[in-house]
Amino acid sequence: MYDTDKRKLLSALCHGAIFFSTSFISIGVPIAILFVSEDPVVKENAKESINFHFNVWLYGSIIGVLVFISFGLLIPLAGIGYLLHWGLTIWAIINILSDPDRSFRYPFIFRIV
């Protein structure tokens, strides 16, 4: 049996790493946890977090190009994207802390890992 508190901490750290920054540094946390942890739920949460990072970068790039092309008229779209990014991450952490025996799956993302 796996330690529930350790599972909660590592899983929340995987998903919460995106709060550190949206740069490439924040993806290092779930990657490191993926290779270090033996817990299958933590590994699934780490993979899902890595996929979410990729999606945030992809959609952020698309929104950035659209804002640039529209000469800033679509800046509210960037705000909505940012709120979605933070909202989904907070939702993931709340789900993990309330049910540590299940991994969280983000809706509507592409899964590469």
Structure commentary:
The structure is a single chain. The chain has 113 residues and is mostly helical. The chain has one domain. The longest helix has 30 residues. The mean pLDDT is 94.
How do the helices and strands line up, and which of them pair or pack?
Elements: H1 4-16, H2 28-36, H3 40-69, H4 75-98
Radius of gyration based on Cα positions: 15 Å
Mean pLDDT: 94
Report the end-to-end length measured between terminal Cα atoms: 26 Å
- Individual helix count: 4
What share of the residues does DSSP label as strand, in percent?
A: under 5%
Tell me the major beta sheet: none
Alpha-beta content class: mainly alpha
Low-confidence region ranges: none
Principal-axes shape call: elongated
Helix percent reads 55-70%
**How many structural domains are formed by the residues?**
1
Return the string of H and E elements.
Answer: HHHH
Number of strands: 0
Please outline what is shown here:
By secondary structure, the chain is mainly α.
